Amino acid sequence: MPGTTMAADGTPVAVLAANTVTAPVATPVTTRVTAPVTVEEVVGRLREIGAVLPPADGVAVFNRLYLTVTEAVRDRLGGSYFADPAAMAELDTVFAGRYLLAVAADAAGQEPPACWRPLFALRAHPGVHPLQFALAGMNAHIQHDLPLAVVDTCLRRGCEPAGLAADYHRINGLLAEVETAVREQLMPGPDLLERAEPLTHLLGVWSVEAAREGAWSAVQALWELRAVPTAARAFAAALDCSAGLLGHALLLPLGPHPAPDAADGSPRTADAPGTTAGTPDAPGKAPHAPGEAPHAPGTAPDAPHRAPDAPRTAAGRLPEARNRPAGEGAGAQARPDQAQLECSGLPSA
Fold this sequence. Notes:
Blueprint: E1 4-6, E2 12-14, H1 39-52, H2 58-77, H3 85-107, H4 117-122, H5 130-157, H6 165-186, H7 193-203, H8 208-225, H9 229-250
Antiparallel strand pairs: 1-2
Helix pairs in contact: 1-2, 1-3, 2-3, 2-5, 2-6, 3-5, 5-8, 5-9, 8-9
């Protein structure tokens, strides 16, 4: 088709400029989002998002982690760390565009892709620990967004994934260092060992290295499927759904967590507001709001509780739970995620 190319998910997209495409995502409304062009611009956009979110907000927790990683990558672009710094810089901006698109969709009252829905829906749940938010965001961004971003970058640069493989795997060590630091920072202290044990068990099933290796396998599959759009779309949709399912598992409420008392969201040992200090809920029991009857054993609350004083700014709006399975809801089509969100400069979803 003249003037078009195939995105990583097999969707034909009009190439308007080097960093401009039209992308379908999960929303019934149309809005415009400007894509970052440089890694420094990505850093600025992440700082803007963090500035308007409460420190304890689940998206804010992931955003701080993502900012740290992006700054680390930026700082290595000017040296000899990467074999092809220009390609890594372009991949970084294309990759970040998918997260920024999810934030913009949520801020506009629209559903982000399925892989991001658990984080946005449970971002204010008092029973989810900050470390769970951080890893759920990494799960969505790595297991779904990253393989699509790698393939889209290769299509834009006219190269094959093999040309990016060495630099892709070189980032693994950098991310492992960041992940270790974040785990140490966000894990509960010794006075919260009762909660730390199930948290450690839950999060032990996920690692950044395994996620990135899985993402690279997805890159290779998508690359082979690029000439078969229907199969590529089906594979990308499967990535989206599977990342969303794992995100729900990573965000399993474990009881009220320590409330942050610093601008960086670092925890203190007091229980979260609305709970009795030193008396966490019984293991396996979901927390409930004061004055609300507890849920029956073995059942989950209908929707996560909203933080009482959280602002409702455009970027920091705390949404109602919108984690229904794909295909449900009013106006659902064969694939409800395919309503259009026009974005200027973001890769196709």
